[in-house]
């Protein structure tokens, strides 16, 4: 084995562990220094886990039946071909305490087979799980029975993917790689905390993230409307407000529309929405009041424009509406952007609605 790898795997001494505990006294400000807040007893426990983990990484590297590559700083971690280990009969298991995978299991599996595994799983070994007090069990799709081998690979992140692989014949399994978990800021392996952080701190994609997904997928062929919304989001606009500005609709673009909707239908009125938005920026501005960046104000703008459609073409309705915005007195603009309190959105809607009705009356427009 490469000496550089071995040198990077010197176990943490007990003195070092206690020194770390002393240097990072347990107090609230430790988190601000990006140091985990451990008790002295926990430090001792993590020192034991870390000692075993470092030995296990060396063992995995030296196991001729496993295909590994040095990974991470100074090669201290290892990249393991999980699929090959599975096909060669190694036990691949999961922590007993883990979240359940429902319908997303098949969806994740299908994506894996179509597009390949683009993200490695995270693992430890059963010896590390044992010393950490983490009970392990076989995956529900594992056809093997009996006691779990001490050399078993324990999947910490990516359990759904691995459970899906176990449901397939060996020849059908796509290649999935995995890496050993990494140390925390104090230099300890803490598998329980790794699982907790992965499952509680990681956010699933929101609907607005699907706009970015659409842009990535369609590239230069993406409709300009998606880029328009993305630009607004980058400037601090709320997702619903950005959608209403881009479409002159009264709600956000839903997930199904963002992922597979026909862009020409979604943005059918964008030619008019851009004219109105430009005039709103000139009149209201994009200041700290964030009037244009929230959903309530942009929603009433869409609703009022649609009222204009009752007796006007879209072109005429837009021309009228741009003229209306330009006619708003400066004192009313100040009143709109200076609205305060929890009812500020309602107040802004009331003001713009009253101004619109006055505009219709003054110009003898009946809708």
Please give a structural write-up.
The chain is of the alpha/beta class and 367 residues long. The chain has 18 helices and 7 strands. The chain has a 7-stranded mixed β-sheet. Strand 1 and strand 2 form a beta hairpin. The longest helix has 23 residues. The radius of gyration is 29 Å and the shape is elongated. 30% of the residues are buried.
Q: What's the short version?
A:
Helices cover 52% and strands 8% of the residues.
Radius of gyration: 29 Å
Unreliable segments of 5+ consecutive residues: 1-18, 24-29
Q: First CA to last CA: what distance? A: 83 Å
H/E element sequence = HHHEEHEHEHEEHEHHHHHHHHHHH
Q: Give the integer mean of the pLDDT values.
A: 87
> In total, how many beta strands?
7
Share in β-strands: 5-15%
Helix content: 40-55%
Task: Walk across the major sheet and give the strand order.
Answer: 1-2-7-4-6-3-5
Helix/strand/pairing category: alpha/beta
Number of helical stretches of at least 4 residues = 18
Described by the principal axes of the CA atoms, the overall outline is elongated
| Quaternary structure annotation | single chain
Characterize the largest beta sheet: strand count, sense, and whether it forms a barrel.
7 strands, mixed
């Amino acid at each position: 084995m490469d000496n550089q790898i071995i040198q990077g795997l010197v176990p943490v001494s007990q003195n070092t562990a206690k020194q770390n505990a002393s240097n990072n006294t347990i107090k609230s400000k430790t988190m601000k220094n990006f140091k985990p807040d451990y008790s002295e007893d926990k430090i001792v426990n993590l020192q034991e886990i870390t000692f075993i983990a470092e030995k296990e990484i060396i063992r995995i590297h030296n196991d001729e039946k496993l295909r590994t590559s040095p990974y991470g700083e100074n090669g201290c971690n290892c990249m393991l071909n999980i699929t090959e280990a599975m096909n060669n009969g190694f036990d691949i298991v999961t922590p007993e305490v883990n979240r359940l995978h429902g319908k997303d299991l098949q969806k994740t599996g299908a994506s894996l087979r179509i597009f390949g595994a683009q993200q490695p799983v995270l693992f430890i070994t059963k010896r590390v799980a044992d010393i950490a007090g983490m009970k392990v069990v076989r995956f529900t799709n594992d056809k093997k029975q009996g006691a779990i081998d001490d050399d078993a690979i324990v999947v910490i992140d990516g359990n759904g993917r691995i459970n899906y692989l176990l449901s397939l014949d060996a020849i059908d399994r796509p290649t999935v790689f995995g890496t050993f978990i990494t140390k925390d800021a104090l230099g300890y392996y803490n598998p329980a905390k790794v699982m907790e952080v992965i499952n509680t701190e990681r956010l699933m994609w929101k609907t607005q993230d699907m706009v970015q997904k659409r842009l990535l997928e369609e590239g230069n062929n993406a409709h300009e409307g998606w880029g328009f919304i993305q630009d607004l989001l980058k400037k601090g606009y709320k997702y619903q407000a950005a959608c209403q500005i881009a479409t002159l609709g009264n709600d956000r673009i839903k997930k199904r529309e963002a992922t597979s909707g026909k862009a020409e239908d979604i943005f059918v009125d964008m030619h008019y929405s851009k004219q109105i938005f430009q005039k709103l920026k000139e009149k209201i501005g994009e200041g700290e009041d964030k009037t244009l960046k929230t959903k309530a104000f942009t929603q009433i703008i869409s609703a009022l424009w649609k009222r204009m459609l009752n007796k006007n073409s879209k072109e005429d309705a837009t021309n009228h509406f741009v003229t209306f915005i330009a006619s708003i007195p400066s004192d009313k603009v100040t009143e709109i952007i200076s609205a305060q309190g929890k009812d500020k959105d309602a107040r802004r809607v009331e003001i713009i609605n009253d101004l619109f009705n006055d505009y219709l009356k003054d110009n003898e427009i009946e809708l």
